[in-house]
Automatic annotation (TrEMBL):
Membrane topology: Multi-pass membrane protein
Cofactor: Mg(2+)
Chain segments annotated as transmembrane: 271-293, 324-346, 358-383, 410-432
Keyword presence, Signal: no
Top-level taxon in the UniProt lineage: Eukaryota
InterPro entries: CASP/CASPL (IPR006459), CASP_dom (IPR006702), Hen1 (IPR026610), Methyltransf_11 (IPR013216), SAM-dependent_MTases_sf (IPR029063)
Organism field: Hibiscus syriacus (Rose of Sharon)
Protein name per its UniProtKB record: CASP-like protein
Length: 446
C-alpha cells in the first residue's frame, strides 16, 4: 500500500536521502538494524569517501542474506573505476542495537532507517543514549513513519474498496503501517524525542523527510532527523567516561554467537588468483602437449635368416595406452577450464554476476581437481608398469628400450602433478569464498 503511492518507493527515497548525507567526508559508517542490507548495498553504487562499512542486526537470517549479497558485489566490482573502490572493509554483527559494544566505537556516521518503531519507546530512547552518548558518532541519521500521514495512506487504500472512504476513516482510528510496529509518532512526538536526545548529548538536529512535503499537511510520510556532533572527539569522550576498550570484555555483542558474522577486506592483490590459475593452465597445457607429441620409433632385430638380420620398426605413442589418452583429456580440460576462469576474472567488471557464480566456480574447480587427479594417477600406474614391468603377469618393461619416450612421459607427469598442486590451492580458495557465516529489528521496506 505505502510503496504503491510513491515513485520511487519510500524505501528507495530513504536510502537516497541517507546517501546524500553520506557523501560528506566520512570514512566509516555503521547501519543499525541493517535488515536485508538495502542501504549497505546501495553504498556500493555511489562514489563516497567511505573505507569501512558495518551493519548490526538481530536477525541472523537477514545477515546471512546481506553477507552473500555484499560479498558478491564487492568481489565483482574490483574495477579501479568502480564506485565502491574506496571501501576496504565490510563487517556484519549479530546483536541488539540497544546493547553497548566497544567495537562500534570510532565510527564516523550511523544510520537507523525505519527501525526504532519496531521496539518499545523506552528502548528507542535507550538506543539514542547508547549511540549518541557512548559511540559518539559525528552524524546519526534516524527515520521513522509519520503517524499523521497514515490517514492519507488509509484513505488511498479505501478508495478502491469503499464508496465513501471519508466516512470509513472517521469511524475507525488510523492503524499502524506494520503489524510489528510498537509505536508510530506524530511530527511533534518525533521532534520531542530527537530534541531531548540532542540536548542531553550536545548534538544539533536537522529535521527532514521523504514522501510528501514539509510545507503541506500532514508533512512527510517518512520523517527523518540528522544528529550532528560539535563537541568532544570520540577518543576523548571514551577516555573521559572510562568506556571499555575494544580488546576487553563488552556488553551486547561479546558472546561467542554474537561475534562478527562476515568480514570482507578489499584484496590487496587482485591478481593472486589469476596468477595461480595461469600457473595451473601453463602446467596442465605443458603436460598435455608433451604427452601428445611424445613418440619414439626404434628398429629391433626380431630374427636372423642365415647371416641376414630381420628387422622390425616399432612405434611408441601415447594413444596406444588408454591411460595416457585419459591423461591427455584430463589435462587438456583442466587447462581450458583455467583459461576460461582467467578470462572471466579479467572481464568480470563487464558483467553483473550474482551469488550463484561462487558455488559454480567452486564446484567446477573441484571437478577439475578430481579429473586431473584421476588422469595423473592413471598415467603414473602405467608409467610404473612400463618402467618395471610385471613379473607375475609376465609383462616386460619397455623403458629400457624406449628411453626417450619414457623420459618425456615422466616430464609430462611432473608437469601434471604441478598443475594438480595449483588446482588444490585454487579449489581451497574457491571453497573459502563460499564461507560467509550467518552474518531484526528492522524492516527497511515498510
Amino acid at each position: 500500500m505505502v510503496q504503491a503511492l510513491f515513485s520511487p518507493p519510500l524505501s528507495k527515497q530513504r536510502v537516497e536521502y541517507a546517501v546524500q548525507q553520506i557523501k560528506e567526508c566520512f570514512t566509516s559508517l555503521v547501519d543499525f538494524g541493517c535488515g536485508s542490507g538495502s542501504l549497505l548495498e546501495s553504498l556500493l553504487e555511489y562514489p563516497t569517501s567511505l573505507e569501512t562499512i558495518a551493519g548490526v542486526d538481530i536477525s541472523q537470517k537477514s545477515l546471512s542474506r546481506v553477507a552473500k549479497v555484499l560479498h558478491s558485489q564487492l568481489v565483482m566490482k574490483l574495477d579501479p573505476d568502480a564506485p565502491c573502490r574506496s571501501i576496504k572493509s565490510t563487517i556484519l554483527y549479530d546483536g541488539s542495537i540497544t546493547d553497548f559494544d566497544s567495537r562500534l566505537c570510532g565510527f564516523d556516521l550511523g544510520t537507523c532507517l525505519e527501525v526504532i518503531e519496531h521496539m518499545e519507546e523506552d528502548q528507542a530512547s535507550l538506543f539514542g543514549d547508547i549511540v549518541l552518548g557512548f559511540f559518539r558518532l559525528r552524524v546519526l541519521i534516524v527515520s521513522t513513519p509519520n503517524y499523521e500521514y497514515n490517514v492519507i495512506l488509509q484513505k488511498s487504500n479505501l478508495t478502491s474498496q469503499e464508496d465513501d472512504p471519508e466516512e470509513k476513516i472517521q469511524s475507525q482510528s488510523c492503524k499502524f503501517r506494520n503489524h510489528d510496529h510498537k509505536f508510530e509518532w506524530t511530527r511533534e512526538q518525533f521532534k520531542h524525542w530527537a530534541s531531548e536526545l540532542a540536548v542531553r548529548h550536545d548534538y544539533s538536529v536537522e529535521f527532514g523527510g521523504v514522501g510528501g512535503a514539509a510545507d503541506q499537511e500532514p508533512g512527510y510520510a517518512t520523517q527523518i532527523v540528522v544528529f550532528r556532533s560539535g563537541i568532544l572527539p570520540k577518543d576523548d569522550y571514551i577516555r573521559e567516561h572510562q568506556l571499555l576498550p575494544s580488546s576487553g570484555p563488552s556488553m551486547g555483542l561479546q558472546s561467542g554467537e554474537k561475534l562478527a558474522m562476515f568480514k570482507w577486506s578489499y584484496p590487496r592483490n587482485r591478481w593472486s588468483l589469476v596468477v595461480l590459475r595461469l600457473l595451473a593452465f601453463l602446467a596442465a597445457a605443458a603436460a598435455t602437449l608433451v604427452m601428445v607429441l611424445n613418440k619414439q620409433t626404434k628398429t629391433f632385430v626380431v630374427a636372423t635368416i642365415g647371416t641376414t638380420p630381420l628387422k622390425l620398426a616399432l612405434n611408441a605413442k601415447f594413444h596406444h595406452t588408454p591411460a595416457f589418452v585419459f591423461f591427455v583429456i584430463a589435462n587438456g580440460l583442466v587447462s581450458i577450464h583455467n583459461l576460461v576462469m582467467i578470462m572471466a576474472d579479467l572481464l568480470r567488471s563487464k558483467f553483473d554476476y550474482k551469488g550463484f557464480r561462487f558455488p559454480m566456480v567452486a564446484i567446477l574447480d573441484m571437478l577439475n581437481l578430481a579429473l586431473l587427479s584421476g588422469g595423473a594417477n592413471a598415467a603414473v600406474f602405467m608409467a610404473e608398469l612400463g618402467k618395471n614391468g610385471n613379473s607375475h603377469a609376465r609383462w616386460d618393461k619397455i623403458c629400457d628400450k624406449f628411453e626417450a619416450y619414457c623420459d618425456r612421459g615422466a616430464g609430462a607427469l611432473v608437469a601434471s602433478f604441478i598443475a594438480l598442486a595449483f588446482m588444490l590451492l585454487i579449489s581451497f580458495i574457491s571453497i573459502l569464498k563460499l564461507v560467509s557465516p550467518s552474518s531484526h529489528i528492522s524492516n527497511n521496506n515498510n
